[in-house]
Predict the 3D structure of the following.
Amino acid sequence: MTARGIHGVWGSRWTFTLAATGSAVGLGNIWKFPYMTGENGGGAFVLIYLACILTIGVPVMIAEVLMGRRGAMSPINSMRHLAAEAGAGRHWHALGWMGVMAGLCIMAFYSVVAGWTLHYIALFATGGGPSAPAGETFGQLLANPWRLLALHTVFSLITALVVALGVNRGLGAVSKYMMPFLFFSLLILVGYSFANGDFAAGARFLFHPGFDEISRAGVLQALGHAFFTLSLGMGAIMAYGAYMPRRAPIGKTVLTIAALDTMVALLAGLAIFPIVFATEGLEPSSGPGLLFVSLPVAFAGMPVGGLFGALFFALVAVAAWSSSVSLIEPAVAWLVERLQWSRWRATALVTGTAWLLGISCVLSFNLWAEFKPAWLLGRTPFDFLDFLTSQLLLPLGGLLIALFVGWVMRPQDAAAELRFARQQTFDLWRFTLRYISPVLVILVLIVGLVDSP
Ligand code: PHE
């Protein structure tokens, strides 16, 4: 039986688009993109990131969706099927396994950060926002391992609930309502920044590339982030593709998703940086806390800022939630297919594993803050898992997807799945996927890893 039989099919093309956008849009856009941009000097990073989305992200995403739909099972089994169909060796199965691993590792730190957003919802809903300076409030949160653990646990449980119920039941509906609201509240925040922040400085920081600001390791971060933000290279999009109706047009859908995802990231940047430049004590390069220390400044200055702050962080939490679901779905789908486990049991095992691993990320901010052993490449567990996945596993997974679909899969099979209206579109996509994307990924990986701190 195929995944469409076991796990269900999306209701329509729109449901796939919504669910995949739900997977793509998340903490990567609102939390990670701004702080990485801040750490890497702004404009040049943004430009390289956009170039990566276009030349690597979009073609690889098309490839990953098409693999999923053609394989029609969990990523691991889809890989088996596709490798057999193309007459390729068993070593391609590794791609599916690597993705499952990457998903667990991302989930471990992702749900810790998502926990921070839960804390901020409560903070704004109960007291109208942090009373101490925003930086202090955030510092106190990080210093409290029990609170972080509790938040991490709550978020893991909420994620597990949806996965156990079956992603195609509730997720489409959730994304449908969340996405417009998220967009709208980001627009309000950008409006606030425009009126009250240093908008010119913020926009200049984001869009004026100064190439001496960015290191080679920064270029790798931009590439890695292009994969991370589109949920590429680990099977999430492949798993969702497996539930996509046969007739839905892949190319157009992928372009829509990539455009929405990019817009959310840029809007988040445009909301945050003008505030950062207009507020004493805030630095663009302040790291993972950037979102949590800058936006409360805006909420404090708004008429119904407490309510709006709670609402905004709730939207971010929902966005994180619709992404985290896709992080564990590939592993769950595989357990269900392979061992005929119930979704509940599979979900418990997979989420539980990620949760355990996540404890090391909770401790990275307090008790283990100085634990940076050589075997974690001199990083805390939190930083290591982020590095391992975004800058290694996802680009590697994306590279293998490009190589598989570009060089191993028969072109007529790819064409049959894609059904582009024009032959030129297909040729352009295939050329990019065969030559441009892989070469760029390999180059950036080599150069970036050599230079990584
Ligand atoms: N794309 C998600 C985000 O930007 C994170 C994610 C990565 C989700 C990989 C699934 C797979 O927040």
In short: The pocket of phenylalanine is lined by residues 23-24, 26-29, 106, 228-229, 231, 234, 236, 323, 326-327 (CB under 6 Å). Residues 47 and 350 are 37 Å apart (CA to CA). Residues 93-127 form the longest helix (35 residues). The radius of gyration is 21 Å.
